[in-house]
Amino acid sequence: MRIETITLRELRMRLKAPFETSSEVTWDRRVLLVEVGVDGLHGWGEITAAEDPFYNAETTDTAWHITKDFIAPFIIGKEVGNAAEIGNLLAPIRGHEMAKAGVENAVWDIEAQQHGVPLAKLLSGTRQEIPCGVSIGIQPSTSTLLEKIECEVRAGYQRIKLKIKPGKDVQVVAEVRRHYPGIRLMVDANSAYRLEDLEILKTFDEYQLLMIEQPLAWDDIFQHSLLQAQLRTAICLDECIHNPSHADAAIRLGACRIINIKLGRVGGHTVARQVHDISVRHSIPVWCGGMLESGVGRAHNIAMSALPGFVLPGDVSASQRYWDEDIIEPEVEVGPAGTIRVPVTSGLGYSVRRKRVESLTVRQEQWHA
Questions:
Q1: Using one digit for the tens of pLDDT, what is the confidence trace for 120-154?
Q2: Is the pLDDT of residue 23 over 90?
Q3: CA geometry: angle at 47 spanning 325 and 294, to 5°?
Q4: Which domains does the chain have, with CATH numbers?
Q5: How far apart are CA 279 and CA 277, in angstroms?
Q6: Of 230, 168, 161, 173, the residue nearest 193 (C-alpha)
Q7: Catalytic (active-site) positions
Q8: Which of 109, 164, 248, 360 is the most buried (most CB within 10 A)?
């Protein structure tokens, strides 16, 4: 495959409702799309960086800079045997995994088209459908939160994730559990706590949670191992797992019992599969986290979630939960049983609506071999 063209676009897309975590509130998404051209075929990827450096160090603007000034010059005109080789070309660039993932995943889309198979199959996925959960941001009141949970439970979602932070944590979970004693429930702290908060975190053991996601520092593994040893509830690591080495260290230290794999955070499908494989070897379940993606990023998440180790419901939910109108067709839909069918057509399995993309684009750059 010769990388003939790369097109980078920034879209502005407004969420249906603001989404609040322990560190930020998001309403308008600055979505970065990457389109790669090879031998007359076009593949799509999404750079899932947030607008601000509160999830990780990358932002929309740093990702644009790195893609424009380093990634595109490194790979334009280059020959690769397969999509996995993109990572080798980009190895001199340290970090910036989300920017790298956007480009690499677009090439994976092309490779699947070349082979005439769904991307999920090319990645060695085995599932025909994937189980889905939802992530609910911090709400202004418990009553509002309960209403949202009721809506999602009625829609069939198999797991509810609550964003928490100090002051909006144990009491909220207790009330949710009182109203919904049987649902699969988890919480996500987005690094809002410290080891000194042990007694608060131990209180969560009373509520039969599926997991507590990344309670401590975003770049920590060791202190999570100290915390996990004192909790009955499983810790899931997210922000601090960037590669197979991190996953191996976390597992061997006993820092977690579950790992969240986000394509952007680990740098694309190649490394995501490696993290998946090492987790499976150690009998650690994995699931797919979300970054408020458009349909392009969501489609890549569906393909990755078809891998056999993704045994827990992920954050891959329906397009209509976030957008009045998505940029793919068909839009991602969740069935009554809380599952999404894995596409069986070649490539991503969804078509990008070019006119819709163009109408939302606020800046664009293109490179030719």
A1: 999 999 999 999 999 999 999 999 999 999 999 99
A2: no
A3: 15
A4: 5-117+350-368 (3.30.390.10), 121-341 (3.20.20.120)
A5: 5
A6: 168
A7: 163, 262
A8: 109
